[in-house]
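Chain A, query sequence.
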Amino acid sequence: MIIFAIDDEALSLEGLTDAITSASPGAEVYAFQSAREALAFAGKKAPDTVFLDIEMRDMSGIEAASGFLKMYPKINIIFTTGYQEYMPDAFRLHASGYITKPITPAKVRTELQNLRHEVAGEGKCSLRFRAFGEFEVFDKDQPVTFDYAKTRELLAFLVDRNGSLCTSGMLMDALWEDSEGTIRHASYLRNLRSDLKRVLREHQAEDILVQRRGLLGIDRTLVSCDYFDYLDGKLSADAFEGEYMNQYSWAECRIALLEDKKERLNKNS
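Chain A, predicted structure.
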């Protein structure tokens, strides 16, 4: 789960962040003292839940909540405040919850257990793929290392295929541009598949790999990826800046699709 914590008072923000981390140790938590900065960041990183103070200097929590809901109608907004009188305004926005200060892990845990909107992908593994720019893989924000560059490229190609299953021929054509040495490439591909399974197993992410006889793919519902979120309309148009898996020549053909998606998002904004 991706959670934003927003409070313009440093000590209050620290307490809120600590309470969220304690209540949900597996959550990816981002802290902001500025609601405007949080809204800008949300264009690149879609939050599932936002804990939001109501009285802030740069923008009221009610105004900020309206901004988040405009971007992501199914987002969970949980207001945090020391004043009960704001409750009617909060519920007119169909907020998920309302916590009065002081914030405690128990209060946060109660709200997270009773969210208004279901958080998609709670069964996801801890891996996160970044496709915009150079392709990178992270496990809880720590880079995942590969013994072989081709193993990373194999995974990148499976991500690029957006959940579609790939034949061995498709994979060999992408990973090796020359048409010679098919038997040698087939043997090498088997080694890469074994190495990829090893890496995923080490990160408790074996379930993302979909294997059929002669076919290979990934289950895109089990991982987080900026490319997937962009295609699904979960990110703003500006999240894509023209760069996609830069280190791989076969990825260049995908840029036209992403540019078209960006144009459509801009027209609808």
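The longest strand covers residues 76-81. The CA atoms of residues 124 and 222 lie 4 Å apart.
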